[in-house]
Write a structure and sequence with these properties.
The complex is a heterodimer.
Chain A (H helix, E strand, L loop, with lengths): L1 E6 L8 E7 L2 E6 L4 H12 L2 E2 L2 E7 L5 E6 L3 E2 L3 H10 L1 E3 L7 E3 L9 E3 L7
Chain B lengths: L1 E7 L3 H13 L5 E4 L15 E3 L8 E2 H14 L3 E3 L3 E6 L2 E6 L3 E12 L3 E3 L15 E3 H11 L6 E5 L3 H12 L3 E7 L8 H8 L6 E3 L1 E7 L6 E6 L12 E4 L2 E4 L3 E3 L2 H6 L3 E2 L4 E2 L12 E3 L10 H21 L7 E6 L3 E5 L2 E3 L7 E7 L3 E10 L2 E11 L5 E5 L10 E8 L1
Parallel strand pairs in B: 1-2, 1-8, 2-5, 8-21, 10-17, 11-12, 11-17, 12-13, 22-29
Antiparallel strand pairs in B: 3-4, 6-7, 7-8, 9-18, 14-15, 15-16, 19-20, 22-24, 23-25, 25-28, 26-27, 26-29
The chains are: A alpha+beta, B alpha/beta.
């Protein structure tokens, strides 16, 4: 049996939740004071995901970098691989908001899209 | 130059105010004056997500949120001037300067102040020590990393656990820096829970509550900072000092509304918010001069800025049309136990645009407590709250029809069990 300690992010209460696991199975969720905490804790121990937001190099634009994000959240343990892939990549101006800049980022199957538009220099 | 409404600042507040005013009356001649080379204000450097949950029911990044408003602005054909710095605000004229027009004055029917806020810098914090390079406010570092594409340092200590500090702890970590600690003077963080978990816990960055920086070392560049625990009076406790080697200290120690223009215009300032005193229409002590966004009071959610600014913009449009100040009975809103401030400060019921939304902050953390609203001493609302913290703005909504009697004062207070 393994116990995992989490802080719930749904509201300012920030309940300390303890999840008891037996392998991949959740045995008990304790410390939450509402249903949302229960759902959060289950997702967080099974498959935690995060949206990565960063910037990517722009060639031939009126600015040197453009902000971007993973179109969907990626597995939490892939965050640094995603960052490395984005930092090696670049895109060409013009860029429109929502443009796909990387098709499949670091093997996650999730694209990276621009969150701002860039005009040519 | 002439305009019906001049809006000072093209950030989230200015955009929402301009759009709402134009929708209220499409014949109005509205002009936004923005000192940066693009619209959107601070949203441009806030590349993280979490914006717009209330407004658009989805999680957007800062630039995406700004773009939604900019599109509406272009669609409505609202005029704006970039790279233009406002120098002076009077009751019916705004003086500004840019490199094309030189110094010029715009005569106008109403003004909306949307100048935003600034970070509290090192000089205002009285941190002892040397003055090496490597001490930045968190927002300056955010601009360097996210817009200019420079890394301000490699080994970082952050003082203050406001949201910008937390966001920058994650941002610096993602870009390869080592964030050694976030120190918070208070026994609680001023940041959102979600940011503490996703910006610090995710990367095992320690949050040291009741700690502060008591010395900065390094001649040319920061080489280390000395931190110490503080007691109940926020004084460093001797014997708790720790030296942390680092090349960068980021400061996230509060935001101050930028009211130089408001003050010189003679607008009355609320000492609790450092922003103008306003009524239900977001009108300041000078008739026809309105204020909204972070210049009025510092927000944690941009969605609330957009909503309040919409009210301010509509009020400005109505003021221009009516060509006179509002009238009718005035109800004062008083801060009771635990309430640091409210916005607005008073209400003219006749002028209310729908229900009355009163936003406020507490002065402390309260668990299992109640928010009470009293009309002339009589309890009208008694609502249980599991937690109230100074870091999260609270609100009560009062129906317009409930405010029609002869009420002279609304008191808001927090009571504990």
């Amino acid at each position: 049996m393994e116990k995992r300690e989490l802080t719930c992010i749904n509201c300012p209460m920030g309940c300390r939740i303890t999840v008891t696991m037996e392998g991949d199975d959740i045995i008990a969720v304790e410390g939450n004071t509402c249903k949302r905490g229960f759902v959060y804790a289950c997702n967080e121990v099974k498959s935690p995901v995060r949206t990565v937001t960063t910037t990517i190099k722009v060639i031939g634009g009126n600015v040197d970098r453009v902000s971007c994000k993973t179109k969907e959240p990626v597995p939490k343990d892939k965050i640094f691989e995603v960052m490395e892939a984005i930092n090696k990549a670049s895109c060409k101006a013009p860029v429109a908001i929502g443009d796909v800049l990387i098709e499949d980022c670091a093997g996650t199957g999730i694209p990276v899209i621009a969150t701002k538009s860039v005009s040519p220099a | 130059m002439k305009a019906d409404i001049v809006i000072v600042g093209g950030g989230p507040a200015g955009l929402a105010a301009a759009i709402a005013a134009a929708k209220e009356d499409s014949n109005l001649n509205i002009l936004i004056l923005e000192r940066d080379h693009e619209l959107g204000g601070i949203l441009n450097q806030c590349i993280h997500n979490g914006f717009g949950l209330h407004t658009f029911n989805e999680e957007l990044t800062g630039p995406e949120y700004a773009a939604r408003f900019e599109e509406q602005l272009y669609g409505l054909g609202i005029r704006y001037m970039l790279d233009t710095m406002v120098l002076d605000v009077a009751s019916s004229a705004v003086t500004a300067v840019n490199s094309k027009e030189g110094v010029f004055t715009v005569e106008c029917g109403a003004i909306v102040l949307c100048m935003g806020c600034r970070e509290r810098p090192r000089g205002a914090l009285n941190i002892p020590g040397l003055r090496p390079a490597g001490v930045f406010t968190a927002g300056t570092a955010q601009r360097l990393v996210n817009i200019e594409g420079f890394m301000p340092g490699r080994e970082v200590v952050i003082l203050g656990s406001g949201d910008i500090g937390l966001i920058m702890a994650r941002r610096m970590t993602l870009e390869g820096a080592k964030v050694k600690a976030v120190c918070e003077l208070m026994p609680y963080s001023g940041g959102l829970k979600r940011n503490i978990v996703q910006c610090l816990d995710d990367f095992d960055i320690p949050l040291l509550l009741s700690h502060t920086v008591i010395d900065i070392k390094g001649k040319e560049r920061v080489t280390s900072v000395v931190i110490a625990e503080v007691d109940d009076h926020l004084k460093p406790v001797p014997g708790t000092e720790q030296e942390i080697s680092c090349d960068t200290l980021l400061l996230s120690c509060g935001l101050i509304p930028e009211n130089e223009l408001s003050r010189s215009a003679g607008v009355k300032i609320n000492p609790a918010t450092n922003g103008p005193v306003v009524n239900e229409s977001f009108e300041t002590s000078i008739p026809g001069v309105f204020a909204c966004g972070n210049v009025l009071h510092v927000h944690d959610l941009v969605d609330y800025v957009s909503e309040e600014s919409g009210r301010a913009g509509r009020s400005a449009a109505r003021f221009v049309k009516a060509n006179k100040a509002g009238e009718g009975p005035v109800i004062n809103i008083k801060n009771g136990n635990g309430i640091r401030y409210t916005v607005p400060s008073f209400v003219r019921v006749n002028e209310l645009d729908g229900d009355l939304v009163i936003r406020f902050r507490s002065g402390n953390v309260y668990r299992d407590s109640y928010i009470n609203v009293l009309f002339d001493g009589e309890t009208k609302l008694h609502r249980r709250k599991p937690i109230i913290t100074p870091g999260e703005m609270e609100q009560v909504i009062l129906k317009k029809e409930d405010l029609t009697g002869a009420i002279s004062e609304i008191l808001i207070e927090i009571t504990e069990n």
